[in-house]
Amino acid sequence: xxxxxxxxxxxxxxxxxxxxxxxxxxxxxxxxxxxxxxxxxxxxxxxxxxxxxxxxxxxxxxxxxxxxxxxxxxxxxxxxxxxxxxxxxxxxxxxxxxxxxxxxxxxxxxxxxxxxxxxxxxxxxxxxxxxxxxxxxxxxxxxxxxxxxxxxxxxxxxxxxxxxxxxxxxxxxxxxxxxxxxxxxxxxxxxxxxxxxxxxxxxxxxxxxxxxxxxxxxxxxxxxxxxxxxxxxxxxxxxxxxxxxxxxxxxxxxxxxxxxxxxxxxxxxxxxxxxxxxxxxxxxxxxxxxxxxxxxxxxxxxxxxxxxxxxxxxxxxxxxxxxxxxxxxxxxxxxxxxxxxxxxxxxxxxxxxxxxxxxxxxxxxxxxxxxxxxxxxxxxxxxxxxxxxxxxxxxxxxxxxxxxxxxxxxxxxxxxxxxxxxxxxxxxxxxxxxxxxxxxxxxxxxxxxxxxxxxxxxxxxxxxxxxxxxxxxxxxxxxxxxxxxxxxxxxxxxxxxxxxxxxxxxxxxxxxxxxxxxxxxxxxxxxxxxxxxxxxxxxxxxxxxxxxxxxxxxxxxxxxxxxxxxxxxxxxxxxxxxxxxxxxxxxxxxxxxxxxxxxxxxxxxxxxxxxxxxxxxxxxxxxxxxxxxxxxxxxxxxxxxxxxxxxxxxxxxxxxxxxxxxxxxxxxxxxxxxxxxxxxxxxxxxxxxxxxxxxxxxxxxxxxxxxxxxxxxxxxxxxxxxxxxxxxxxxxxxxxxxxxxxxxxxxxxxxxxxxxxxxxxxxxxxxxxxxxxxxxxxxxxxxxxxxxxxxxxxxxxxxxxxxxxxxxxxxxxxxxxxxxxxxxxxxxxxxxxx
Length: 834
Prior knowledge:
Layout: H1 2-14, H2 21-29, H3 34-53, H4 60-72, H5 81-89, H6 93-106, H7 118-125, H8 130-143, H9 146-160, H10 165-181, H11 202-218, H12 220-226, H13 230-242, E1 250-251, E2 254-255, H14 257-271, H15 275-291, H16 297-312, H17 317-330, H18 336-349, H19 354-358, H20 361-366, H21 373-386, H22 392-405, H23 408-425, H24 429-443, H25 451-461, H26 466-479, H27 484-503, H28 516-528, H29 534-546, H30 554-563, H31 570-584, H32 590-593, E3 609-614, E4 617-622, H33 635-645, E5 650-652, E6 654-656, H34 666-673, E7 711-712, E8 719-724, E9 727-736, E10 742-751, E11 757-767, E12 771-775, E13 790-797, E14 806-814, E15 817-825
Parallel strand pairs: 6-12
Antiparallel strand pairs: 1-2, 3-4, 5-11, 7-9, 8-9, 9-10, 10-13, 11-14, 12-13, 14-15
Helix pairs in contact: 3-4, 4-6, 5-6, 6-8, 7-8, 7-9, 8-10, 9-10, 10-11, 11-12, 11-14, 13-14, 13-15, 14-16, 15-16, 15-17, 16-17, 16-18, 17-18, 18-21, 21-23, 22-23, 22-24, 23-24, 25-27, 26-27, 27-28, 27-29, 28-29, 29-31, 30-31
């Protein structure tokens, strides 16, 4: 007996009482370096581990509390998980409190240990002490897994019906977590929600509104069921507005703003697309909007939620104007966050209430001068949304001024917006050309790739402005050659209309006196300038070549072209060699090949004209309109796909439509294939067509007969190329006859979701050893529930009989959200490529 007592005393002496949490915090804060703090933590963790091994029940609670503090500092504390479970099983409230806190911090549903808590939580939910029940509800609502929620949902539902307001508010929040984890248990809580809104306790009201909101968002049936509660919610909100000072709920003079915001959000859900509910809440929304104090941030938060509710429901027009005026007042607030949310909200409503937003145009434009980049970007986007035919001149003046002074990160988006607005609302062609030239002069290096071909098309179609445009561009070229898009457009125009520049036929402004040699000096200077990119040099050389039929200095032009026949730039060298061939062997064809470009039809996304970009130059390809209209893909989309695929070993898709007659002539063949070539080189000449007698050497052997003839069916098994997120892409195969090297692949896109997939675009790319042609799809909408398919034909030329590989890119819009995905297809049937 005395021996046992002696050993107990020895153990007691070896294990002194651990330090308290307050002392540990004070000690850690005295550490001067991170290493010193780490040393203290490691030492204390070692002592805590020793205590856990000794099963020291006396100080387990203190040790776990210290461990949680270390966990909050970022140090590992996983070895205390089981100790938390032991504290939860304890009968002491202090132990349970620390144990449940530790479980919420150290455990989650990814760890199996948390399942051991289920029985303890169930017992505590039925405990006689409300505070122990509250701890169990908090823990279940914080980290309960779907299995735990299924097992304990019955206890939560019982507590939701209790008369104890302390437990009801915690049970309501726990029910929200249960519904999120197991939505099918939603109906279990429906009877308990009947009397929740009649509760006087604000905490219960708040959590009840959160629970109703969650149920309405997750179930259309629940939404229809709870719409009958709109008058009761309106009455609660009215009492909050009209009630006097209540110290326990007052925040900056406003009665329980948190509950007001929650009720407004629930009203927004209930009133959306419902006339009766919207009518019932119109008056109370007007009262909130007019009676809420705006001097404090609390009032602004309520007003912002009120505005969002007004905009989402079927509210009266006067109420919507009131909401937009509130956002207009927000723009004058000194708080940057309030200004930002106001601009964001106005941007969402500008399409439906354009005239009301227009009243605040000057305030919105002033936000372009804000120092905050987020506000500046939102103001820029909203300014472009406000542009129309009546204010185009004034708005463009402000936006061009912004373009001059803004940071480089804004210039690309601003330039694109100016281009689109000018194209849509330009009051005259001269104004349109001047505006775009101003953008190119100011921010030419930041414009999109398609700005050059678009401006060239605009100039080509403005016949009466040719002399004025070429003179303006020539002057701009003399001032600055650093803006490459501007230089490219100017080079193209000088090559096309150089004779008008030299003759001085400009009527819009005083003509300048320019000689042929001066024009050629400028173009030759571009060829040797270090600022010029390879694409710009190509434009310049082509312009010089075109001037050989417009100027008399043919010998000088011959010398310049022959010099670049040995250029180290392969692109420039090939052009020069081909141009030299025109001077020598085909000189009789040169005037016809280099004649002025015809007027191009207007390009649109579904129109009959395509712009195929080849080596930096743009040439039109007029095709017959189809019904339904073909869904064309811009060249830059194909280039984006090419960038995603690596760029060096793949050939981008050329989107086209079927020609109305056989492609027997060389020019028609080139129009069909665009810049699709085995070597990736340019077309042999910049002219829009090539005579039948001289087919392109890049496609030698393919021009003597139609490239794609009648299709003969072959026994090639179909395959599933893509099946994800409800979208399924099937490939079926056929052989082209008489050319067995051409595989004809038909894609069949089907949609198993419950909503149509709109703006559907299919893109593909293959290695350089193949040639690929993608024809227009049958539609750009994939019907829901597999009620139809979208078909599209791909033609692949595989002369070397290599195994076929393809990378595909799918873009579409589903339920208003854009979706984009990439996939690689490598499992083609051997019969499709052998």
